[in-house]
């Protein structure tokens, strides 16, 4: 797929932020398999106190700049109208692809406070069989480019040698907008997270909190549990439940396998080329509603995945991923009238998918940034 590329749109980004903060504090030298805990740092309020962080030994390298491309083969798409005046339709999607570009910049990297600025651009595209399909939803997203442009700020606050907390806020413009037709009020989406945790040992950290976001298609608040643990030099688990659970197997200093699942949610605003009219049972236009000019598209999918990451150079890594996508929802809601009624209920067939990713780690600073 081309993407708002989100391994929990909130969960995958959140995991990257945690890794980025840890690696900025201490860049892993070549040949070291497992990053060590942060060394003791002097602080004005403490005497050489070691501060807790959510990361644990054995986790993969941090990601500073990411290029990700994902695609699925042909799958069946069915849509059922939920209001009078529209019709049901079934076809096949010839293409569903996402492109994601993300970057993370450490703004502050003190032992007791870390600030990370993140930016992202994602684009998702669909192509359906025999276009134009003459079906309202599909023709409005055919080759149109569902885009996400966002920025976020993460605050990672180690409290002492045991406790830490994280706060993240993110704003995104999400939909089929163009540079000449962009209304912030229509396309802006805001999400946030807060987690409070405990670092029990260098190999075990966990936390609890809440998230406000679109992981399940619509904006909602739900609990979250972070669980990072390395059981031995090979095996570990990295989870932000319920959005993501991943088992990790470290095969060498430069190679890591992952297996697990992610829940990804997308929320797009679609401007209709031709207005639609909601109708009453006798087929006449509904006098209590306006013609639909805007739809809110809520997409939720679960991916069961395997992933391999391999170092090409000390600072450049390749990620390859494959798995099976189960589409839980692809529904369109009325954004013109205040009742926010569901207009179309779609079911996309499950399908295999594959992705490739290149990412640059902070080790590039060591390789190039400190040359005389």
Distance from N terminus to C terminus (CA atoms, Å) equals: 42 Å
Average per-residue pLDDT, rounded, comes to 83
Number of strands: 18
User: Which regions have little confidence, pLDDT < 50, spanning 5+ residues?
Assistant: 1-48
Global morphology: elongated
String of helices and strands: HEEEEEEHEEHEEEEEEEEEEH
The major beta sheet can be summarized as: 16 strands, antiparallel
CA gyration radius, whole angstroms:
22 Å
Number of helices: 4
SS strand fraction: over 45%
- Oligomerization status of the protein chains: single chain
What would the keywords be for this entry?
4 helices; mainly beta; 372 residues; 18 strands; single chain
